[in-house]
UniProtKB/TrEMBL annotation, chain A:
Matches recorded under SUPFAM superfamilies: Alkaline phosphatase-like
The organism of origin for this protein: Algoriphagus alkaliphilus
InterPro entries: Alkaline_phosphatase_core_sf (IPR017850), DUF1501 (IPR010869)
Entries under Pfam families matching the protein: DUF1501
PANTHER family hit by this protein: BLL7424 PROTEIN (PTHR43737), DUF1501 DOMAIN-CONTAINING PROTEIN (PTHR43737:SF1)
Name recorded for this polypeptide: Tat (Twin-arginine translocation) pathway signal sequence
UniProtKB/TrEMBL annotation, chain B:
Swiss-Prot/TrEMBL keywords: Heme, Iron, Membrane, Metal-binding, Transmembrane, Transmembrane helix
Gene3D superfamilies xrefs: Ribonuclease Inhibitor
Molecular function as annotated in GO: electron transfer activity; heme binding; metal ion binding
PANTHER family: CYCLOINULO-OLIGOSACCHARIDE FRUCTANOTRANSFERASE-RELATED (PTHR35889), F-BOX DOMAIN-CONTAINING PROTEIN (PTHR35889:SF3)
Cross-referenced InterPro entries: Cyt_c-like_dom, Cyt_c_Planctomycete-type, Fn3_assoc_repeat, LRR_dom_sf
This protein's name: Uncharacterized membrane protein
Species for this entry: Algoriphagus alkaliphilus
Domain Cytochrome c: 172-272
TM region(s), chain numbering: 47-65, 77-95, 107-125, 132-152
Length: 484, 704
């Protein structure tokens, strides 16, 4: 018995253990050969080694996103529904609404009378797109437009819907689209931020915009959107104070960098390096920005193109002009917000004002980029966070009515940057309530935009709190039909 | 001897049966007529073949290593294996008569027969000599392997085995070279159809591995009828339900994806052309869409990449050099920062002149710069020179750039010679030519010289009349002591600003034109408008300025204002600050229930001759002109009342505005002034708040 125990012990000697172990390791190694990115791929992405490179040939290099904050009505702009005019005041059939949830603003309404557009529609361009009389200039550039009438979203109120559009999630704290692109593609012009934000506000009922919409979320702080002030001095505190020369400024920044470097060595906080980079960026912006914001050298015809308002700081038109100047100077993503589209009541009146703000300058921006040969590489996006209901909110009159929020179908348009031009995509039912053809979800839109920029939306990820995040979360399909 | 072994002699005999049958069937060849029942048997071939392979190979292995009893077992295995080989060979021969043919079949068939023969031979001579046994079993193993390999080729296609490790040349087909049939359709046929429809296995008598075969069609009809989806067998078969026997590809084979199915249908519908190029399709056509997904729009480049270190060294804050596509040799170069531009840095680009396909010099001051460096940029396709101040004479070098497709040269006063130089660029596809200082004749001339080029002359704004926006008055409503400088500006520099100080509306001829250096010395309303050629005159901009020549020593309030509108208390009235046009700005004293009563102490020697009340009017907020103003002067002995006019009341609601009430003061000695400003006691009947008490808002008492 004892002998057996001894033998058992001897059998399990170190040599035997090692030799068996080596076999085991060998098999693991062999198996791992079949998992190519086991030791490399993901590491690389996280180290940012593969970044600053598109995943495939980009069609667009830059984006100007003209966000119409508050949600313009699709039924008064691009989604022509004669039935609503014909059946004015009649009840929205329950079969169409299909028990969809409503906002607290109309859920208490006892009736949902259909209301048609106060504004007449006409067909324009090769695509014979229907556009209302609110947009005389935009209808003039219709051959450059790709109108998508079948957008839909999940959110029903402004804040979540906006946040969803911009960050891919309804809750805050995720990086904005511009931040993702800055992270993925880097800056073209090292003297300017890759992501700039311009705000303006129309006279219509407004909804807030907040810095979380251009937040870098968990990405490095250098990817945050830089908000320009809507005053004559778009970037505040850019001038050196009196008595401070460029050389002194340089010395000062160098000294701060040395100190920050020491701090970084001690705490290893990446925010410190981000800060150093931002000081450097601000220093370079001191020369780069004045060149861009100086509109005095714009020819008269440009002013006529965007409308005279483009020289009044803080207007949408001025922001369009500034957006072009930033974009042509290599800013990847210029995000505009124009507030005032939330027409729950007095819609025709409000829309006249809002449309007047944006019509000429939006069309002007497209024409301007085109005549400089830049439209092909610049993607323009125009649209709000959702649509508006086909039934009236509040009192109903032919020329005075309101519309509530409608996430199920709405219209946006894009131009340039590798999207098809002169095309209308998607269709809604004759009530303009549900999509009947080619729906495009917000995540699909985001995936498509990233695709145009040369990024595979499934590959651009960032690991945070133990999981990988991307702009489109776990959804999104590139809508190839939209790509030229 | 166990009972089971009694069948051995039977099996031994059976071997010769298979051999004979196999020989007969092989020699009969084409003349065979297989009844359906036997066809079924033939089709069991792919199932059966696995058994003999396994049994024979085990037997071979045992013969090589085993001794004694095991060797006996090996013999029995061999016997069983040989019999199954027989069955398989026979089934195979029946199957071969169906629709197979070609070289692979010949090899497979005869190697199969040899395997059968060999296994029988080995079985009967296995005990003769060890050397024979080893040699013959080895040969058998090789024969079985080869048979299997050729069989697999028949079923799965040539090179099935080695395909994964054979270098696949992923063909980078550029959009402009792509052909519909060759690059879109044929790859599908190759992937999903050809295995059964090719030389060697011409199922249904249809060969898809050569164009002639497609044109000839198959047993039941033509492969495709151009333009006719219903008559085309290809389309019929692929659209049959999957369980239908005629469905193609057969149920157990890899199926067409939806996209592939659609491509094939679109191809047939569009005429099943064998030559059409993708670029000949219209953009809206779905086929074009499929093609654009598949082929790189980017041109493929054959030149060598520039060195990594060169690219790196050329990148700095003001110049970006990067590949147009990761891994592509082609580079694009962009310059940024007008003030930092150094023309000599253009010469650095020589290192990458062969690889640069796109160069962006927009807004870099290039006037007078020698553009000769461009001559080496043989692959340059796109050049952007907008707003660079370049002149026509600097463009001579462009004619040497044979690959130049896009030229953006907007915003330059090109001058003479430009048309001649640009007219030489026959390969140009697009020319962006907005604001280039050429007259209509020159533009026409250029169009004629470049018939193939799309020229964008852009937006001139000619003939469009817009209204200018109002000029900006650089001073806000202000109170001044002696004088104030008039500052007017307009963002469009070509405008004239005309102004008036006498309350009249400025016009484009009579009113004075603004130039800096004008000083205002009295209270007045500044009105200004902007005018320019090709524009409609602007709206008015107006600002009122107030002269307060005498600053009182002190002022005290006898009655407190409404607490929300108490501003800074009494001092508000003489602080020299003009309130904004908003009663909640904190610069206005507001009274409603009681009159505003104030006493003003003058310094010795101050002799005002006019007292002005600076008020705010805003009817919709119930802010009205006072109902009555009373003024008293303290002459040392008592209060003397000054006669005052009753102010006229508004008759409708107007926008928020400033108001002044002026009262002349008599020429006599006084040291204090007392005023009483009484709000409207009842708002007039036309007002929505008719009957309620009105408000008075005042921000300053002006003495002159």
């Amino acid at each position: 018995m004892e002998k057996e125990i001894l033998e058992q012990g001897l059998n399990h000697n170190r040599r035997k253990f090692l030799s068996r172990l080596s076999l085991g390791i060998g098999s693991v190694a062999l198996g791992s050969l079949l998992i190519p990115d086991l030791f490399t791929g993901k590491q690389e992405a996280e180290d940012g080694l593969m970044l600053a490179l598109p995943h495939f040939a980009p069609k667009a290099k830059r984006i100007i996103y003209l966000f119409q904050n508050g949600a313009p009505s699709q039924l008064e702009t691009f989604d022509y529904k004669p039935l609503l005019v014909k059946n004015f005041g009649e009840e929205l059939p329950e079969s169409i609404r299909g028990g969809q949830r409503l906002t607290g603003m109309t859920s208490g309404q006892s009736s949902f009378p259909l209301v048609g557009s106060y504004f007449p529609f006409q067909q324009y361009g090769e695509s014979r797109a229907w556009i209302s009389s609110l947009f005389p200039h935009i209808s003039g550039v219709v051959n450059d437009l790709l109108i998508v009438k079948s957008m839909h979203t999940e959110a029903i109120n402004h804040d979540p819907a906006l946040t969803f559009f911009q960050t891919g999630a309804q809750v805050g704290n995720r990086p904005s689209m511009g931040s993702w692109l800055s992270y993925g593609l880097g800056s073209e012009n090292a003297n300017l931020p890759a992501f700039c934000v311009l705000l303006s506000r129309g006279k219509g009922n407004g909804q807030g915009v907040y810095s979380k919409l251009w937040s870098n979320g968990f990405l490095d702080a250098t990817h945050q959107g830089v908000q320009f002030s809507n005053s004559e001095d778009p970037v505040l505190y850019l001038k050196d104070p009196q008595g401070m020369s460029r050389e002194q400024r340089r010395k000062m920044i160098d000294q701060i960098s040395v100190m920050n470097e020491l701090n970084y060595k001690e705490f290893n906080d990446p925010q410190i390096t981000a800060k150093v980079q931002q000081y450097e960026m601000a220093y370079r912006m001191q020369t780069a920005v004045p060149e861009i914001t100086d509109t005095s050298r714009e020819p008269d015809s440009v002013v006529k193109l965007y409308g005279p308002d483009c020289l009044v700081p803080g207007t949408y038109a001025a922001n369009c002009l500034l957006a072009r100047k930033l974009s042509e100077s290599g800013v990847r993503f210029v995000q505009l917000y124009h507030q005032g589209w939330d027409a729950h009541d007095n819609l025709p009146n409000q829309m006249i004002g809002q449309a007047k703000d944006v019509d000429q300058s939006t069309a002007g921006l497209i024409t301007d980029l085109k005549q400089r040969g830049l439209l092909d590489e610049t993607l323009i996006i125009w649209g709000g966070e959702f649509g508006r209901t086909n039934y009236c909110q509040g009192k109903i009159q032919l020329d005075n009515y309101g519309r509530d929020h409608h996430p199920r179908a709405f219209s946006i348009f894009m131009a340039g940057g590798g999207v098809k031009s002169g095309m209308v995509y998607g269709e809604t039912d004759e009530f303009g309530y549900n999509i009947t053809e080619n729906p495009v979800h917000v995540h699909d839109f985001q995936a498509t935009v990233m695709n145009l920029m040369g990024i595979d939306h499934e590959k651009l990820t960032y690991k945070h709190l133990g999981r990988r995040y991307r702009l489109t979360d776990v959804h999104g399909k590139v809508v190839k039909d939209l790509i030229a | 001897m166990p009972k089971i072994l009694r069948i051995i002699p039977l099996l031994e005999n059976l071997l010769f049966f298979w051999l004979g049958l196999a020989l007969v069937l092989s020699l009969a060849g084409e003349r065979l007529e297989i009844p359906p029942v036997l066809q079924v048997m033939g089709r069991t071939h792919p199932l059966l073949l696995h058994f003999p392979i396994v049994l024979l190979l085990i037997a071979v292995g045992l013969f090589w290593v085993a001794e004694g009893k095991l060797k006996t077992a090996a013999g029995q295995l061999l016997l069983a294996g040989a019999n199954l080989t027989g069955v398989t060979v026979v089934a195979g021969l029946l199957l071969a008569a169906e629709e197979y043919g070609g070289e692979a079949l010949v090899w497979h068939q005869w190697l199969g027969l040899i395997s059968l023969g060999l296994s029988i031979l080995i079985y009967f001579y296995r005990n003769e000599s060890a050397r024979f046994l080893k040699l013959s079993t080895l040969t058998l193993a090789v024969a079985i392997t080869l048979t299997g390999h050729f069989g697999a080729n028949l079923t799965h296609g040539e090179d099935f085995l080695l395909a994964p490790i054979q270098s696949k040349e992923t063909e980078f087909v550029a959009m402009e070279d792509a052909e519909v049939f060759r690059h879109l359709v044929q790859p599908i046929l190759e992937a999903k159809c050809i295995a059964c429809h090719k030389e060697g296995k011409i199922k249904g008598e249809l060969r898809m591995d050569e164009i002639a075969g497609l044109q000839k069609g198959g047993k039941t009809g033509p492969f495709v009828v151009p333009g006719d989806l219903n008559e085309s067998l290809l389309i019929q078969r692929i659209n049959l339900p999957k369980d239908n026997e005629e469905h193609m590809p057969p149920k157990n084979k890899a199926q067409l994806t939806e996209q592939e199915l659609e491509i094939l249908q679109l191809w047939v519908a569009s005429g099943a052309s064998l030559e059409q190029k993708v670029t000949e399709l219209k953009q809206e056509e779905p086929l074009f869409r499929f093609a654009s997904e598949k082929f790189t729009v980017e041109k493929t480049y054959t030149f060598k990449s520039a060195s990594e270190s060169d690219i790196k060294s050329l990148n700095n804050f003001f110049r970006k050099v990067s590949p147009v596509y990761p891994g592509f040799p082609a580079l694009e170069v962009s310059y940024f920062g007008t003030s930092a531009f150094d023309p000599s840095s253009l010469r650095d680009l020589k290192k990458i002149s062969g690889q640069t396909v796109k160069l962006n010099l927009n807004r870099m001051p290039l006037g007078g710069v020698d553009m000769g460096f461009l001559k080496d940029f043989e692959n340059l396709e796109e050049l952007q020179l907008n707003f660079t101040g370049i002149r026509g004479g600097q463009l001579t070098v462009l004619s040497r750039l044979e690959n130049l497709k896009n030229l953006a040269i907007s915003g330059n006063e090109l001058g003479d010679g430009a048309v001649t130089e640009l007219g030489k660029l026959k390969n140009l596809k697009r020319l962006f030519f907005w604001q280039s200082g050429l007259d209509d004749n020159q533009q026409e001339e250029l169009k004629k010289a470049l018939p193939q080029t799309i020229i964008d002359f852009g937006f001139s704004g000619k003939g469009l009349l817009y209204e200018l926006n109002a000029p900006k008055i650089g001073i806000e409503a202000a109170i001044f002591k002696d004088s104030i400088e008039l500052k007017l500006s307009h963002p469009i520099r070509s405008t004239d600003i005309r102004y008036t100080l006498d309350g009249t509306v400025p016009d484009s001829s009579a009113s004075p034109k603004y130039s800096p250096g004008i000083w205002i010395k009295t209270s007045t309303e500044i009105r200004a408008r902007a005018f320019a050629q090709d524009w409609i005159g602007s709206d008015e901009a107006t600002v009122s300025v107030f002269k307060s020549g005498i600053k009182a020593k002190e002022v005290s309030l006898r009655k407190d204002p409404i607490p929300r509108y108490k501003a800074n208390g009494s001092i508000t009235l003489i602080d020299g600050i003009k309130g904004k046009a908003n009663h909640t700005s904190g610069e206005w004293l507001g009274y409603q229930l009681t009159p505003l009563e104030a006493e003003i102490d003058l310094d010795t020697g101050q002799r005002p001759i006019e007292l002005t009340l600076s008020l705010l009017y805003h009817e919709s907020a119930h802010i009205f002109t006072p109902e009555k103003v009373n003024i008293w002067l303290y002459t040392g002995t008592g209060w003397d009342k000054v006669p005052t006019e009753i102010p006229s009341q508004p008759t409708k609601i107007r926008e928020t505005r400033f108001g002044l009430l002026k009262y002349p003061l008599p020429e006599k000695e006084f040291s204090r002034i007392k005023i009483e400003v009484i709000p409207v006691s009842k708002l007039p009947a036309w007002h929505p708040g008719a009957g309620s008490k009105g408000w008075v808002f005042m921000d300053e008492i002006l003495l002159n």
